[in-house]
Amino acid sequence: MNTTTPSAAQAQMDIAEEFAFFSDWSERYQYLIDLGKQLPPFPEECKTEEHRVHGCQSMVWLVPEGDAGKMQFTATSDSAIVSGLIALVLRVYSDRPAAEILATEPEFVQSIGLAKHLSPTRSNGLTAMLAKLKGYAAQALAGDSP
């Protein structure tokens, strides 16, 4: 089994290839929901205001760990589709150096057509989640613990 984590760019290409298998958006939404169900359990004690992502219609919590050399994120949501979006975001951004996180644009959002198929509130929530995640990376680079 390959234990190396693919680059953020490779993770985005893999996501685009996976979504290309589905011919319509009902199948893609189902795949997103299935991805969300595979998220690891999220500790209840981390569901705090400090970790909450504001700007999302759903409840979303994002917890950073690590340092500028390698950051990991855990996250969860009370929404099935948003949980799937979290799974995609974590594939692209977790287990990466803070500098790579900051340098990586979420190209998968366009490449799989999410930008056109998310409701405005979900789109705003995804933007808020990415902003919070990149904010944690910027803090880590500045020498502050996230």
Summarize the structure in words.
With 146 residues, the chain is mainly α. Helix content is 52%, strand content 11%. The chain is built from seven helices and two strands; from the N terminus they run H-H-E-E-H-H-H-H-H. It has helices at residues 8-20, 25-37, 80-93, 98-103, 108-111, 114-117, 120-141, and strands at residues 60-67, 70-77. It has a two-stranded antiparallel sheet. The longest helix has 22 residues, at 120-141. The model has no long low-confidence stretch (mean pLDDT 92).
By DSSP (H or I, 4+ residues per run), the number of helices equals 7
| Largest β-sheet summary | 2 strands, antiparallel
Radius of gyration: 15 Å
Cα separation of the termini: 32 Å
How are strands sequenced across the largest beta sheet?
Answer: 1-2
Total number of beta strands: 2
Order of H and E elements: HHEEHHHHH
Q: What is the percent of helical residues?
A: 40-55%
The poorly predicted ranges are none
Into which percentage range does the β-strand content fall?
5-15%
**What structural class should be given to the helix and strand makeup?**
mainly alpha
Overall residue-averaged pLDDT value: 92
Shape field: globular
Structure in a nutshell:
With 146 residues, the chain is mainly alpha-helical.
List keywords for this structure.
single chain; 146 residues; mainly alpha; 7 helices
What topology emerges from the helices and strands here?
Elements: H1 8-20, H2 25-37, E1 60-67, E2 70-77, H3 80-93, H4 98-103, H5 108-111, H6 114-117, H7 120-141
Antiparallel strand pairs: 1-2
